[in-house]
Amino acid sequence: MSWLSGSRGVVLTAYHPSGDPGGRRSGQYTMNHENSKKTPDGAPFDRSGSQDSLDELSMDDYWKELENIHETRGNNHEEQKALVVKEPDEGELEEEWLKEAGLSNLFGESTGDSLESMVFLSTLTRTQKAAVEKRVETVTQTMRKKNKQYQIPDVRDIFRLQSDSKGKVCDGSEPSTVRTCENKNETQDEAKGPKFSLGIDEQTSPLEDMRLSETAINLEISFSEQAANLKDSSVGKMCKGGGDDTLLPNFRLPKDKTGTTKIGDLAPQDMKKVYSLALIELTALYDILGTEFKQQKAAKIKTKDSGLFGVPLSVLLEQDQKKVPGTKTPLIFQRLISQIEEATLETEGLLRIPGVAARVKSLCQELEAKFYEGTFNWENVKQHDAASLLKLFIRELPQPLLTVEYLKAFQDVQNLPMKKQQLQALNLLVLLLPEANRDTLKVLLEFLQRVIDHRDKNKMTLKNVAMVMAPNLFTFHGFGSKTIEQSKFVMAAGTANVMRFMIQYQKLLWTIPKFIVNQVRKQNAESQKKEKKDKAVKKLLKKMAYDREKHEKQDKTPNDADVPQGVIRVQAPHLSKVSMAIQLTEELKAGDVVARFLSQKSGNVQTLKKEEVFLYEIGGNIGERCLDDDTYMKDLYQLNPNAEWVIKSKNS
Fold this sequence. Notes:
This is Rho GTPase-activating protein 18 isoform X1. This protein has 652 residues and is α+β, with helices and mostly antiparallel strands. The protein is built from 27 helices and eleven strands.
């Protein structure tokens, strides 16, 4: 039985120390100082630093929302079948992890030294390598126990990668610094090429950086490396914050001259690399901090293949994209948010006060029948009913918005000792979400922030909103009662705090850390280098080069001629001025380049707005990257001198 499908007493006694299901109405569930310090079974509660002590966070809104959810489910006679979460053995779990990380060739029948994986492994930091080695070792032991006749590489050999034709290897065994394997015999031309810092800068101590700014989020150094270096130091003290919104740390991102990279700025082929690196980095971070990281796996169940509520996100988007091409979040989800906002976000108790249960159920059924026909009358939908429908939509997804695979990892963020580490883990988890889930979560968090912006009128502070929304995102019925019984108050307060973090720091969460982007750049550069060496031994290469050179000489125009040193040629195929040579200066930014093109007063430029077009970095050591306006072009050019520069819209 689902933990939410029993009687009201079952649901509430799973959380409340009094065990009195009627007490919540009379205020008996508001937590006092004594109860806040321990879980219902009497175990000491010592997580106050990582998630704020429970007496600092009034949990009343949480329990009330949980009761409302139960009442809604109790009135729903067509309750959705619970999703069963499998518990694979450790070997299977690590095999799946290696597959997800794109390293399946390190074990099993596919064992081999594929070029792609070898290049990938060569870019990992010390802590990332340790995480991979740990999983390979577990798989190795499991296969031996099962007497599988697979060729399993010695874990010590995995990182002995050839870095050049002279046979130099990199084993990743340096104990205190993280660096890639460098060939001391590099030619002068290679030495002048761009360098990618994947870890700790040799000239700077990360501990000194931390002392200088406790609220600065360092995106240049691997998070797991930062944790490893802080683990036993006095700097690694807990960053405590109270329950008030204003007491959360004011985390900020330092300016990066080569530009901040957001989710959506990179091409799909590079995002695939980002996913693998984020998975390895998150695992390494959890390993360093002593928190178990296990991906869950859901058993396949039959789901609805049409409709609105209880339909997989992928099915909804497939339906919606036929009506609105290019839409990234479900239309019903967007419409419910619009309905709430059209009334006013100043309504007191917005999101907290539920709609009338019978009316919400009736509206739900009517929407299922009329929404896509366009005959549903939205004038009949009251604001609180729309808010209840929005939360119902999130809860009734066949798989949680945060996914079965990573929901527990999101919950376990509360166990990390420092708030900065919690934020780093959330950043990596957001990178791991499927695109549809990530886009929907982003729209939700942005909406919740707009609600909070009107807190003076609606009385919905960050804390209130987090308390109300946490049960809808985290109490997924597929995980059954076991998880709840083990966690109880700790999980409730912890997930509420994770929700606070996701809302408060949402702009940071959609940033791809620079150290991961640099690892992607290095992978691309190394792959290109190896590909060039492979092509050099092919007889056809000389003929291909000759034909290409001949063709280019015939077709070359003055505009395509090689540009002088310190000048870039920017293409804008969709604008009236299709090409422009631009002199690089220390202060020239990407936004300045776009502005020069838009200043041309002819053609379709007049219809374009600055926020619709961007400068893109294409090729070289990146697939494609949309640049933010504050990117300093000279610094980026030095990092990727072989790139092409193109102005276009994100939709082109």
